Amino acid sequence: MQQDLKSKATKELIIQKSFEIFYEKGYNSTNIPDIMKETNLSKGAFYHHFKNKCEIGKIVINKIIKKRIYDGFISPLKDYENKNIPELILYVFTQRIKNYSEKEKQLGCPANNLINEIGCTQENDFRVLLSGLISDWNESLTKVIKEGVRKKELHSNVNPKAISTLLIGSFEGIRGIRKVYDDDVIFQDYISSIKYYIKSIST
Terminus of the chain with fewer CB atoms < 10 Å: N or C? Predict the structure, then answer.
């Protein structure tokens, strides 16, 4: 039992450190020796748990990136029936930006970084996994926007799926632009624009 716990802890360490290195260096610029160095594991210990970097990449997407999107953008929407929909959407798309660390501002969105780097790769199912993350987010947000229309808190002529795509796309885009400018004014302008837009579709 103790050996099983140790093995599980080692595997979790590899996954977490791999995520951190992918985030800082990029997936393509990371190699197995980089991960071994950060985890202080031998080659044998590493390959006891994973076959290759591709396998780790898939697990990082499914285990860490997916959880980040769920915790940050899907879970807060779960209580939509008891909330004012425009206020809830505004909160989700602005509050998280206000709380990003300097590192998160500089490095951008881990999911979007991977999408830009390996999202077009058919090999190894990366495209399928990454598009699935966005689809889950889009579906959850679309459902909430539809509820906003039903409750007459959002205009009846809006297209919920189109609005969801716009909000997600603009959020991911601004995180990438912030990396280029390294200036929080970019985030401030984004927040002001999102406030204005949500107000314009609210009743």
Answer: N
Q: How far apart are alpha carbons 144 and 150 in whole angstroms?
A: 10
Task: Tell which phi-psi region holds residue 84, choosing left (phi > 0), alpha (psi between -120 and 50) or beta.
Answer: beta
Own/partner contacts of 80-83, CB < 8 Å, gap of 24 or more, are 80/143, 80/144, 80/147, 81/147
Helix (H) or strand (E) holding 92: helix 85-98
User: How far is the C-alpha of 109 from the C-alpha of 124, rounded, in Å?
Assistant: 22
Q: Which residue has the tokens 């709380």?
A: 99
Residue ranges of domains in the chain: 1-50, 58-201
Torsion over CA: 59, 55, 137, 102 (sign) = positive
How does residue 53 score in pLDDT terms, banded at 50, 70 and 90? Answer: very high
Q: 1-50 is classed in which CATH architecture?
A: Orthogonal Bundle (1.10)
What is the CATH number that goes with domain 58-201? 1.10.357.10
> Which tens digits make up the pLDDT trace of 135-190?
999 999 999 999 999 999 999 999 999 999 999 999 999 999 999 998 999 999 99
Neighbours of 26 (CB within 10 A): 14
pLDDT range class, residue 90, cuts 50, 70, 90: very high
